[in-house]
Amino acid sequence: MSDLTDTLETNAPADTAVIDNPVAGIDQSRGNFNYDVKYDFDAGTGLTEDTIRYISSVKKEAPWILDFRLKALKTFLDKPMPTHWATKDLENINFDKIRYYLASGQKPKRTWDEVPDDIKKTFERLGIPEQERKFLAGVEAQFDSEAAYSNIKEIVAKQGVIFMNSTEALREHPEIFRKFFGKVIPTGDNKFSALNSAVFSGGSFIYVPPGVKVAQPLQAYFRINAENFGQFERTLIIADEGSEVVYMEGCTAPKFSTSTLHSAVVELVALKGAKIQYITVQNWAANVFNLVTKRGVAHEDAEIKWIDCNIGSRLTMKYPGVVLKGERARGEVISIALANDGQHQDTGAKMIHAANNTTSNVVSKSISVGQGRSTYRGQVYMPKHLKGCKNNTECDALLINTNSRTDTYPAITVRGDKNATQHEASVSKVSEEQIFYMQQRGLTEAQAMSLAVNGFINDLASQFPMEYSVELKRLIDLEMEGSVG
User: Fold this and answer.
1) Rounded to an integer, what distance in angstroms lies between the CA atom of residue 443 and that of residue 76?
2) With helix as H, strand as E and coil as C, how does the chain read?
3) Of 207, 484, 252, 202, which is closest to residue 370 (Cα–Cα)?
4) pLDDT value for 223
5) pLDDT, tens digit, 9 for 90 and up, residues 33-64
6) Pairwise CA distance, residues 305 & 220, whole Å
7) Residue 253 to residues 9, 74, 221, 285, 346: CA-CA distances in angstroms?
8) Is the pLDDT at 291 greater than 50, yes or no?
9) How many other C-beta atoms lie within 10 A of the C-beta of residue 485?
C-alpha cells in the first residue's frame, strides 16, 4: 500500500448543502463564498518545466530547491496513475487545467491591519482573528498558494519556538529545514507526493527546542479561493528532545462547478521523549479532490498522535502514519469520517513498528449518509526480529440509509511470537426502533438521527479540543438534515 493515497479529492455535486466547519468558530455557511482577487503572481494553467521554473523564480529560491523540484516533476510524470481503489474518480483529474501557483504577495503580514482588504474579508468572515485572540499561541493563514498572515505570540517566540510558513523557513532556517525536508516522506513515495514536491508552496514549519512545552495550540488555516486551483502546502514539524506541541489545521474552499485539487505533504519528527499532537478538521466543498500524504517518525520514548476529522470533498484519500523508530515510542491515530451523497471518504492509518516495545493504537469511526461511501484502509507491520510490540485497531462504521456503503480493509502483519495485536470491527445501522423511541420523547426525526450519530462518535469527539468538539457536533447536526428517509 502506498503511504498516501495515490489519489485526489474530486468533483462536487452542484447542489451540495452548506454546512458548518468544525474548526473552532468557523461556520461553513460563511465559507461557501469567494472574492475576485487581483493576483500579482500567476503560473497559468498546466504543469511543465516552465511552471516549475516560474514558481521557483518568483520565490527567489536557492538552486538546490529548483533542482529538487525538477527531479520531482520527472518522478511525477514517470509514475502512472494508480489503477486501484478510486480509479474512476481519479480519471476526472485533468492536470492541464489546474492552476498551480497563485499569490497576491510573497511576504505574510504580521498584523491583520496589513492584510490586503479582499483577503482580510475572507479570514474575518471565517473567524480567524477571533480564534487567535481566544486560545491560540500562533496562527498561519494561507490564501491559495501563500500565507497571507503569520503571527506567533511573543512569549512563545521567546522560548525559541519557530513557527512560520514553509516558504519563509526555507529562506531563514535552511540549516534546520533541509536536514529533515523530504526525509520522512521521500519524493517518490507516491505519485502525488511527487506532485507536491514539484510545486509545493506554503504550509507550516515548526521547530520546538529541547524541553520546551508549548502551552497553547498553534494553528494553520488553509483557504482555497480560486477556481480550477491546486493547493500544495508542505508542512514540517520538528519537536526536539523532551518538547511538546499541539498543532491544529482547518481547511475550507468555496463550491465551484469545476474540480479543485488539494495535495499536501506533512512530515513530523518527534525526537527522544518528545510529543506531537496533530489535529486536522477538513470540511472541503464537494468539488475538491483531497489527496494528502501524512507521516511521522517517533524516536525513543517519543509520541505522535494524529486526530483527524474528514468531512466534505468528493474524494478524500488520507492515511496518517507513524514510523515507531525508537524503543518505547508510541503512535496513535484517532479518525472520524462522514461521507454524504456523492462523497467517498477513503481514510485510515499506517503503523510501522521498527523498534522493541513500541505501541500503536488506531481508532476509526465512519458515518455513511445517503449514497455516501466510507472506507477504512489501514496497515500495521511488526517484523520478526522485534519483541514487546503492541497494537490495537478498532474500526466502527455507522450506516444511515439503505444505499450508503462502508468497507474495511485492515492489513495487519505480525511476525514472530513476541508481539501482540488485536483488531475489532463493527458495522451498525441506526434502528427504526431507536428513532421511534426518541420521537416519543418529543424529538423530530432529524433531531433523533443527529443524537444517534453524535452518540456514535462521542468518545472520539471528546478527544478534540473543546472548541473543535462543539463545532464538530454542530456540523453533524446539519449534515443529518434531509438525510432521513
Assistant:
1) 53
2) CCCCCCCCCCCCCCCCCCCCCCCCCCCHHHCCCCCCCCCCEECCECCCHHHHHHHHHHCCCCHHHHHHHHHHHHHHHHCCCCCCCCHHHHCCCCHHHCECCEECCCCCECCHHHCCHHHHHHHHHCCHHHHHHHHCCEEEEEECCEEEEEEECHHHHCCCCEEEEHHHHHHHCHHHHHHHCCCCCCHHHCHHHHHHHHHCCCCEEEEECCCCECCCCEEEEEECCCCCEEECCEEEEEECCCCEEEEEEEEECCCCCCCEEECCEEEEEECCCCEEEEEEEEEECCCEEEEEEEEEEECCCCEEEEEEEEEECCEEEECCEEEECCCCCEEEEEEEEEECCCCEEEEEEEEEECCCCCEEEEEEEEEECCCCEEEEEEEEEECCCCCCCEEEEEEEEEECCCCCEEEEEEEEEECCCCCEEEEEEEEEECCHHHHHHHHCCCCCHHHHHHHHHHHHHHHHHCCCCHHHHHHHHHHHHHHHCCCCC
3) 484
4) 76
5) 444 556 788 888 999 999 999 999 999 999 99
6) 17
7) 12, 29, 11, 6, 20
8) yes
9) 8
Q: Are residues 363 and 394 in contact, defined by beta-carbon separation less than 8 angstroms? A: yes
Gap between the Cα atoms of 83 and 352, Å rounded: 25
Report yes or no: 6 and 191 within 8 Å, Cβ to Cβ. Answer: yes
What cell does 185 get? Answer: 516522506
pLDDT digits (tens, 9 = 90+) for 233-287: 999 999 999 999 999 887 766 666 567 899 999 999 999 999 999 998 887 878 8
How far apart CA 477 and CA 309 sit, in angstroms, is 15
Q: Tell me the whole-structure pTM to 2 decimals.
A: 0.86
Quick one: average pLDDT of 132-151?
Answer: 74
